[in-house]
Design brief:
The chain has 209 residues and is α+β, with helices and mostly antiparallel strands. It has one domain: 3-Layer(aba) Sandwich (Aminopeptidase), CATH 3.40.630.30. The protein is built from 8 helices and 7 strands, in the order βααααββααβαβαββ. A hairpin with a 7-residue loop joins strand 6 and strand 7. It is globular and about 40 Å long. The termini are far apart.
Length: 209
């Protein structure tokens, strides 16, 4: 049963439990996606081939996320991300799948600038989005989530895992929505290395598995 959300203090590894989304309940995942931009996008930005707000409805995006995650189905053969619990409360989400599972990445400049790769290589996985529930933001939860993506992808046969995080600067405010790709430091601490720097604030980072 969900209780009031904690509001302060960094989370420790001992407080955090991270599971594949199919081992979480849809109610728990919905609690994480209950506010702000996340409640509207529902992690479909890179999934919808067309313009997300024109070509899908809110109900369609919710149904898509439910199907992709296979929540409440522990025996599901696949899922689209990981769910973090802090002291058994649903607190965070990270999307991680084979790179071709994100149609919108094909046309984005950021992943491909200066690179010549097979965009349909399903041995390369990608981390595309973090969502941290209100009350748990600013407490460092993206760090254990970023680390967890490595073993998750490796255990499912990925040869490499990449991400497209933002460069953060001390003292410079960044809105929550901008940082849905994660901060560069979280991936650096998880063992990723920078392989390209396509914009002033975005990098491509990768780890070989």
């Amino acid at each position: 049963m969900m209780t009031d959300v904690a509001t302060s203090g960094p989370v420790s590894d001992q407080q955090v439990r991270i599971v594949p989304a199919n081992q979480a309940s849809w109610d728990d995942l919905s609690a994480i996606f209950s506010a702000d931009y996340a409640a509207r996008c529902l992690c479909q930005r890179f999934k919808v081939p067309g313009w997300i707000w024109r070509d899908t409805t809110q109900d369609e995006r919710a149904a898509a996320l439910c199907a992709q995650t296979a929540c409440d189905t522990p025996d599901a053969p696949a899922t689209s991300g990981l769910v973090a619990y802090v002291e058994d409360q649903p607190a965070g989400w990270v999307a991680v799948e084979p790179r071709p599972a994100y149609p919108k990445l094909r046309g984005s400049r950021i992943p491909w600038a200066g690179r010549a790769e097979d965009k349909d290589d399903d041995g390369i996985w990608a981390v595309t989005c973090f969502v941290v529930r209100k009350g748990y933001r600013g407490r460092g939860l993206t760090y254990p989530l970023a680390r967890a993506t490595v073993d998750f992808a490796r255990g499912r046969g990925a040869r490499a895992l990449e991400a497209y995080p933002m460069i953060t600067q001390p003292g410079k405010e960044i809105t929550w929505g901008e940082l849905h790709v994660g901060p560069r430091q979280a991936f650096a601490e998880a063992g990723f290395r920078e392989i390209s720097h396509p914009t002033a604030r975005r990098v491509v980072m990768r780890i070989t598995l």
